[in-house]
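Section 5.1 Outputs to date
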Amino acid sequence: MPIRSILFTALCTLAVPAAHAADSTIDPTFGVDGWKRLYQPGGGTQDERGVGFARTADGGYVVVVEVPGGAANGGTGKRIGLFRLDRNGVNIGFGALGDVYKDAWLTSVTGMTIDAQGRIVVVGATPGQGGLSDFGVVRFNADGTDDAGFAGDGGTSFSFEAGSTGYDESPTSVITDPDGRIVVAGNLNFGGSDQRVGIVRFDTDGSVDSTFGDISDGLGGFRGTDATFIAGTAAYAGRILRVVDGYYLITGTSVFSSTDTDFAARILTPSGAPWAGFVGSGTFAIDEPGNGGSLYDTLNDAVLVDPTTVLLFGTASGKFAAARIKISAGTNIDARPDAPGGIFGTQYTDLALDPTFIGSAIPGRPYRYVGNTPQSDGRSAAVRSDGRILLVGGTSSLAISGSSIVDGVEQPAGNSWARIGLVTRLDADGSPDTGFGLGGTYAYAAPGGTASSYYTTFEQVRFDGFRPVMLGSAVDNSAAVSDSDAVITRLQSDVIFSNGYDA
């Protein structure tokens, strides 16, 4: 894929009438000329980082940003920045300026979601005993105020080791059940190669749900689950999803050797326990050869396509990579009393690659997609209502070798970027959508300083109808990696309605 072609065609985001705009064009009606920077006013050159966002009932967004300056670890911790935006990226709702900042004694901010009541749930690592980290969970009311109904003051911490100081625990993902209970997944570092995933559920009042998991709490109940994907291998958590009939799917990365890692997933029953003997667990290798013959596959996101279909997305040897898997009922396993419908309920125990996902049609490796842009990191995926798939992240492989117009500003010869936001669109069958960008891929740099940001990357994508909305981070500098802000932007749609909206 020609470097100059991607960069020059992708980054020229000239405003054109919506009815004639390419669907890879930045939507100029969003934010300021298509982009919105999110940072703490008066914060100087501190670095803010976009973590995640979710849609609100009125069609807008709540965005969570990691902000430096938290009291944890001697003042080197991270604060939670909440921003409420309307559908077109205008600050509304929270405080006087549409934002709220919370020091919840976290050392990192790693995930967020909104529950059915509009409450905002944020997770991150928090200092635990012995200088090691625990899961931290914070809940806000829909207006951004602290939710005192959650753990008494709006936040709680959790360790899978009751009263012990043995290992680091850090959350990577959070979802909420329809009844408001909170499910958090993350990494457990037992030391050395003993790395596991951990999953815990909290009741709506912030207490640990003792009916969830398979780790005994010593009182006749449970305090979550820890597991790997394959016996004897290290496991790293990606996303937790609620799937068919109240089951869960924990996704992540399984380590086979120092040069071979694979996408992985494991089914958990509605009570949060894995099936015995690694039934319902599997790895899904992309196996794109890398340096020295390495086969590094790292899963960063998982998206529910339908209740029994999940898209896995991440990076394979420095390229975007994806696969789709199916969840199905097994026939050779004893029924469990916690199955929906009672002991005779359907038992979902099988995972397999989806053979309708054509992907890149790689010889010998069917049902997988691998991108063409090297030095890329796939961060987030979303599936449109018509089945089209959007993949986002960043790449450091693109640079300008001659003068050009980028984001409407003349760029001098020799200008380059440390990192560019990368977007790829696939058809519903996983093959590149050649109607988007150049061969299905576009690159974007946020406005920064007097020209384009030297560093732009996307961390999460969601759809507003048919229009993709992408959150990430970008430095406010055209020549160096300094003063990072969260940025959010929206692309045009290839489906144009008479009222100018697509939903």
